[in-house]
Structures are given as structure tokens and as C-alpha cells.
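# nightly structure sweep
# worker-07 picked up a monomer target from the shared queue
# config: single-sequence mode, recycle default, output format = C-alpha cells
# input follows
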Amino acid sequence: MDSSSFSSPPSSSSSSIENPRSTSKPKPPSFIPKSPSLFETPTRPLPSSSSSSSSRIIYSDRFIPSRTGSNFALFDLTPPPPPSSSSSSSSPSSDLGKEDGSGAYSIILRSVLFDNFDRLQSLDGRISSSSGSSFSLPSPFSTPSRNIFRFKAEVPRLRSGVVVEHSFPGALPGQVKCPRKVPRSPYKVLDAPALQDDFYLNLVDWSSHNVLAVGLGNCVYLWNACSSKVTKLCDLGVDDSVCSVGWAQRGTHLAVGTNQGKVQIWDAARCRRIRTMESHRLRVGALAWSSSLLSSGSRDKTILQRDIRAQEDFVSKLTGHKSEVCGLKWSFDNRELASGGNDNRLFVWNQHSTQPVLKYCEHTAAVKAIAWSPHLHGLLASGGGTADRCIRFWNTTTNTHLSCMDTGSQVCNLVWSKNVNELVSTHGYSQNQIIVWRYPTMAKLATLTGHTFRVLYLAISPDGQTIVTGAGDETLRFWNVFPSPKFQNCDRLSDIGATSFVRSHIR
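# output follows
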């Protein structure tokens, strides 16, 4: 799409170290057994209620299958014959080391089914018993010659010393899982002129309907990830600018926070403004939805709870921060609201409180990056700014600080994957990188680079596989970082996972 010219208004200044002044920006054969013949099973006479000697025989209509023709030896599941004197002198391993491996296969099968291993000594094909006798087994992936299953591909032999997690006790070691590969390059780049380089703003959000909202200067643009169509939603005029955008959890309502302290609600499907709410004295840089309740955080240090069904502009005011509120996130059960501010504080509020119920003061810089875990109730992650650089984890149920990770760079955003227990963080000074972490070990799965300015904006696609990042270099970059759900019965929302590299304009 051709880029239209736009004169971007100057971004709002902040006195914090998080926003030093910058002078320039670079731009699945089934096994089908042989059909057995139908055995005619003689019916059994049932006892007669008559007392006469020549009672009438009543036959049952129930058929009982005959198993006289069954070949249990095929599976070698019949009990072994009693040992003879000639074979008593032979070692146990002589029978178990037969060419067909049926004895070993039977032992393995019974051990797995009944959890009867004394000890799984190693991964090189040897099993030891408590009596001290040992015997060799074929590879866990090889099968007896009479086995009904056949494997076409040979699986590489496990290396000794490799730690493998078993799916259930007594199971044989499975194939080693290779580390998941995360593409190091974005598959799409969008030019986003006038995307502000301001740490305290939140200008990018991705809806449940696969539409990306971006605040550029005094306008809001919508990019449909299915069709790549760009729509200009609104223009605030020369006297105002966009400071935050936030999609409702369901539906097509988009909240827009402005530099003049207003909050506008738009119906994105119809490109029509529904209402405008005021009551903030300064810019609104953070928005968070909880059903029909919208929370807005402002530079005036307050958080307003707004019910869009009510006539009033807000239903309650939350006070406690001593500086600008720049991070807001509702928990997945909509019971707790986490807020971060330029006062280096992280607060947790419940649905009815006007004062924070939990206060965390360990961060030493502004707290904008906040993310609730979708996998564990009460698990909260937060990140600090330039003077802090740490990601901290909290259990809000027990009110405990769990762990801390120094990332080495200003933490701008955090988002948790809903498909796997991983999270991604974006960073500013000084490396401007994107890091994918595995929780709780906090092992780095990937470090992504490409932005030349601080990666201030982050949103995740509704299928949980793709993230989009925005920076002061006026670009939006799309990355495939998370895997798809293990069990997914619905179709993909779109083809946004294409590997082709495309660069176009957001407007």
C-alpha cells in the first residue's frame, strides 16, 4: 500500500531516564488382523423351573466367543513353561538373548504395563534386576521378528548420559527431543511512520479477531492480518495525539487514550466512535479491559475504572502511585489488576479495592512490562527500566517474590505464551533485543535482533504463535516465536505464519 504523507506531532516529553532525548531515527498401515471364521458356540441349557423329569430345554440367545483358535504365542504373553533340569543350569540371559527377542519383549511389556521395573540403569539397552543378574536387550525402538508392528525408519540410538523425561513410571526412554528452533528473522516488516519513541506509551495491540491496532501520531490505523488491508480508524486532529490503544477481550471495541486525558471507545467494525470519557487531567498511556470494565492509567498518577455500560465516566478511582502509571494488566480470571508506574512500584488491586492489596517495591526503575501467566493462577511477571533491567516473578496468591533475572537491558514489554510455558521480553538500552525464555528455568531459547531503536511495543496474535514488535525506528516486525497448541481442533485464524519476508506500509 502506498504510504501517505503525514506530519507527525512531537511526542510527549518525560522527565524520566527511560526517555532521553534523541535527535534522529534510522528508518498419522493400520493393523487389520486376518478375519477369523465365525465359531459356532454350543448354547448352554438353562435350568428349568418345571419339576417333571422330561423338562423342556430352554436355550439362551447369548453367544459366547470361543478362543480355542487364538494364537497367544504370537504375542508371547503366555506364562513361560516350568524350568527343566537341563535348562536350569543355563543362565537367565541365555533365553532372553534369543534372536527373536520375544522373551525380552514380553518382560518389557509386562514391566511397562505393571510398573515393575526395579531400576532403569541406563539408556544403552541394559536392564538390571534387584537380584543382581543382568541381561542385554535390543534397542528400545527395535522389535521382535514376529512382532505385528513394523517401523520403516530407524531411530538413532540414544547417547549414554542423556536425560530423558518419561511419560509414566517404568516406561522405556523415548526419543530425545531436539531444542525448538525459533526463526531469527521477522517474516514481515511494516513501515509505521510517526510511531513514537516514548517508553511510557502503549501504541500497539492485537485483537481476538486478528486485527492489529497501531497509534501513529494523532491517528489510529487498523491492519487486518488475514487480508493485509489497512484502515484508518480515526484522526484526533492537530491538537491531540494517540498515547495508548487497547482492544476489548471480545468483540470489536477499541479504546484509545489521548494526550489530553480522554478515553475514546470506537466500534472498529463500523469505524464509528461510541463515546468519549474524560476525568483524567493528563495523558492516558495505559489501558486494560476486563469484560465491560475498562481501566485507564494516566500521567496524573491515578487509575480510573470505567464501566462502558454506565453513564458516568468512571465508577471508581484507584490511587497509590506517586508517578505516571505506564503499565496495566488484568489477570486471566479478571479478579486482579496489576499496575506499574514511573515510581518503580508494582501494585496489585482486586475488583473492589480502591487501594492496592499488594505492593512490590523491589524494582529500581519504572515498571511498564507486566504479564500474568495463563498457566498458573497468581503468577505475575514484571520488568524494570534502564536502572533495573530485571524480570521478577511474583506469586500474588501467597504474596511471595519467586525469582529475579537480570537481563542486562531495559525491559520494555513482557508477554506470556498461552501454548507453552514460555514468555518473551523486549528490551531497550542498550541492546534493543527480543528474548524468548523458557519458564521456570529462564533458559534463553532465542535472542532476536533487527530493531535499531528501543523495542517499546509488543503484542501477540490470537493464536498465540506470532508476536509483533514496534520501535522508534518506525517499523513493526512480525516474528514466529511460539509453537502451535499440541491439541488444536479449530482452523488457524490466518496465514500469518508464512515464511516469506514482506515489507509494506501500515498506512
